[in-house]
């Protein structure tokens, strides 16, 4: 059975040209301009925020080309219902994304697909990437578990979500109930499974299945109740908070008000997709530090070459923020403007209560030739 819900890509649109998104000061993409694709994560280069998906296209399994993608600087990632980084997502996870044409193919961190194809469309820069539970939670949806079939150490789930689907499970499937992690054998031993005529709301994380060609999937994780999902959300949320506090909040420079002798006031918009507790640390009147970043969000040695300053204003937009924007703009005063502090450029900002440390060495930019890593890693 094919899993064809709103979670699925409209394959009819795969060859339709999307729109390029330009990194203009103060401009964020609109969701209406994006193209939606779904696929299995098969490769990740987390340092440069890029990877490869095997898109779900009927009849294009063996002969299909991988869809190499790069995250836009403001691109948002969600895993298990919480903000995430690409390093958090296991290979094989089925992901859903919103993609744009590259801002500049000549400097893209992934190869230009040329005319594009069903499995390798031209839209290869992601503004949003999320797993199934994240998408369902965002849209207020859940799978309905109707029946569980068990045959030895394997089985099937009969589930519905805008249609009826059969998903496989086995001893590798993690089943979460409350704060418990259960195996298939434990659920069988206690008499919970197999079961029929159920009407239980669950969340599923799907992964690769040998009959992928026919859009069949395997259950990697199953959350049987809301309490279990909340535990997963909180665990991922805490991973995300630590990651951003140690690497600082990404933002885009909007305007520069130059003063005398290099002094300047920088207006910058914080990117969206972060935990609310991180945004709450940006307060008027506190000190901080701003560092130059690449579009991959990599920095040099931010603790050394960043510029100390002061947050003088924090403004929040009224209503719903733009797609990929937090809706929070700060003004940051620095005694000396740096070359990378220009309108449209990406920076990372640290409020004074965040650690003033350098990221792992392999995540830093080490030289001019490293500013735009070659896409040759992906081959042809």
- Helix/strand/pairing category: mainly beta
Could you give the order of the helices and strands?
EEEEEEHEEEEEHEEHEEHEHEEE
CATH level-two architecture of the domain at 11-138: Beta Barrel
How would you name the CATH homologous superfamily of the domain at 11-138?
Copper binding periplasmic protein CusF
The name of the CATH topology of the domain at 11-138 is: OB fold (Dihydrolipoamide Acetyltransferase, E2P)
Radius of gyration based on Cα positions: 22 Å
Strand arrangement, largest sheet? Answer: 9-8-7-12-13-10-11
How far apart the termini lie comes to 33 Å
Low-pLDDT parts are 1-19
Mean residue pLDDT: 89
How helix-rich are the residues, as a percent range? 10-25%
Structural features, described:
The strands form three sheets. A seven-stranded mixed β-sheet has the order 9-8-7-12-13-10-11. A six-stranded antiparallel β-barrel has the order 14-15-18-17-16-19. A five-stranded mixed beta barrel has the order 1-2-3-6-5. The longest helix is centred in the middle third of the chain and has 22 residues, at 226-247. Strand 1 (35-45) and strand 2 form a beta hairpin. The protein is built from five helices and 19 strands. It is mainly β. Among the domains are: 11-138, OB fold (Dihydrolipoamide Acetyltransferase, E2P) (Beta Barrel); 249-376, Elongation Factor Tu (Ef-tu), domain 3. The two termini are 33 Å apart.
